């Protein structure tokens, strides 16, 4: 979870310390997040507002927490190389590629939140990342003007 500049908060979520995990997935070689505990941990902080949540899924977060949702999209050729360089192999690599092909996270976001607040952003190049950051910061600035 990440929070960025201005009046926004930075959340230190103790996932790495294992406090919000309920086990380990041997097949994917990663911890299993306890989604209920994560929501409980974040509830008070999210109700204060001004929080940006950075996560690879959204179906367990309450709709009331978010004013906008950005789904980063990556071409499969870029994604394959990116994941392979992170050491992803086998089923974990293939499932992540299929997830992107079938737009799984975008569909999850559209089903979890109002469609008009869900936006897709390309995330293939460093230039894309810069544009995304600029677009998100512009949205935050406009939202703050409109709501303060």
UniProtKB/TrEMBL annotation:
- Localized where? Nucleus
Q: What is its main location?
A: nucleus
Q: Which GO terms describe its cellular component?
A: cytoplasm; nucleus
Q: Name one Pfam family in it.
A: AAA_18
For the biological process aspect of GO, one term held by this record is: rRNA processing
Q: Which superkingdom is the protein from?
A: Eukaryota
Reactions catalysed: AMP + ATP = 2 ADP
Q: Which Gene3D superfamilies match?
A: P-loop containing nucleotide triphosphate hydrolases (3.40.50.300)
Which keywords does this chain's UniProt record carry?
ATP-binding, Cytoplasm, Kinase, Nucleotide-binding, Nucleus, Ribosome biogenesis, rRNA processing, Transferase
According to the UniProt entry, its GO molecular function terms are:
AMP kinase activity; ATP binding; ATP hydrolysis activity
The name on file for this protein is Adenylate kinase isoenzyme 6
């Amino acid at each position: 979870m990440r929070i960025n500049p201005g009046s926004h908060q930075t959340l230190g979520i103790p996932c790495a310390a294992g406090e919000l995990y309920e086990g380990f997935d041997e097949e994917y070689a990663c911890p299993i997040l306890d989604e209920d505990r994560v929501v409980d941990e974040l509830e008070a902080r999210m109700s204060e507002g001004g929080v940006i949540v950075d996560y690879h899924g959204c179906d367990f977060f309450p709709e009331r927490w978010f004013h906008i949702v950005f789904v980063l999209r990556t071409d499969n050729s870029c994604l394959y190389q990116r994941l392979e360089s992170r050491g992803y192999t086998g089923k974990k690599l293939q499932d992540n590629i299929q997830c992107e092909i079938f737009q799984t996270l975008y569909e999850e976001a559209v089903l979890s939140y109002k469609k008009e607040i869900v936006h897709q952003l390309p995330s293939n190049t460093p230039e894309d990342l810069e544009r995304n950051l600029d677009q998100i910061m512009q949205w935050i600035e406009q939202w703050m003007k409109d709501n303060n």
